[in-house]
Amino acid sequence: MRLLLIRHGQTPSNVAGLLDTAAPGPGLTELGHRQAAEIPDALRSQLLDGIWVSSLIRTHLTAAPLAADRGVDPIELSGTHEIAAGELELRRDHEAVRIYLETVFAWGVGDLDVRMPGGENGHEFYSRFDASIAEVESSGAAVAVVVSHGAAIRVWVAGRAVNVPPSFAAEHDIQNTGVVELDGSSADGWTLLSWQGTPVGGSDLIDEDAADPTGESIEDALDEN
């Protein structure tokens, strides 16, 4: 299966640099809606067999233009939501961002016993995200779009891509509506084909002033806090 993981469009909390992970979550900014509107043209040449979204509203809003363009209804997945910040929710200070990023990227390199303060551990994260990707596979789709979240995409790819080191995802950012493309299966493993930190509509849709910890490289995110 060809799997396109697309990060949602920009939210007000991305701009503010908040660890805003709880459901239903914020909507999109004006820029976020423009980013989402560019997705259909960016994927015009790509055959798609289905579109899946997380339980958070920002993924639904991001997928809506593509779904309307292709005449399909997005399917909600229960396990592809953002990594919950737990006791760090709605914080933006350096200490909170450090703990959040160090926790999630510990999972990416295999230390799954580490637990987010007041939240899940790595075993629980991979279990629910893997289960949702298996659900997509069971649909029989050859090419699937899953609109998800910055930290969740990066950590899942870190733990599941067989052709890049686990540190890759922590060291590479993913901007709003950035696309990560993989090929493979849960049974045979996933090969990372492309990692695009640029929004699908082009660099003019990047907000350089947004203090966005879940999308930036771990070094950049900590430097800005």
Characterization of this structure:
The protein is α/β, with parallel strands linked by helices and 225 residues long. The chain is built from 8 helices and 6 strands, in the order βααβαβααβααββα. The chain has helices at 12-16, 30-42, 57-70, 94-108, 122-138, 150-160, 168-171, 218-224, and strands spanning 2-7, 50-53, 75-76, 143-148, 179-185, 189-195. The chain is globular and about 45 Å long. The mean pLDDT is 91.
Secondary structure elements and their pairing?
Blueprint lengths: L1 E6 L4 H5 L13 H13 L7 E4 L3 H14 L4 E2 L17 H15 L13 H17 L4 E6 L1 H11 L7 H4 L7 E7 L3 E7 L22 H7 L1
Helix pairs in contact: 2-3, 4-6, 4-8
Strand content: 5-15%
* Beginning-to-end CA distance, first to last residue: 39 Å
Quaternary organisation: single chain
In CATH, the architecture is 3-Layer(aba) Sandwich
The biggest sheet, with number of strands, parallel, antiparallel or mixed sense and barrel status, is: 6 strands, mixed
In CATH terms, what is the fold-level topology?
Answer: Rossmann fold
Percentage of residues assigned to helices: 25-40%
Shape: globular
User: What is the spatial order of strands in the main beta sheet?
Assistant: 3-2-4-1-5-6
State the low-pLDDT regions, or none.
none
Q: What is the highest CATH level, the class?
A: Alpha Beta
Q: SSE order in H/E notation?
A: EHHEHEHHEHHEEH
CATH superfamily descriptor: Phosphoglycerate mutase-like
Mean pLDDT: 91
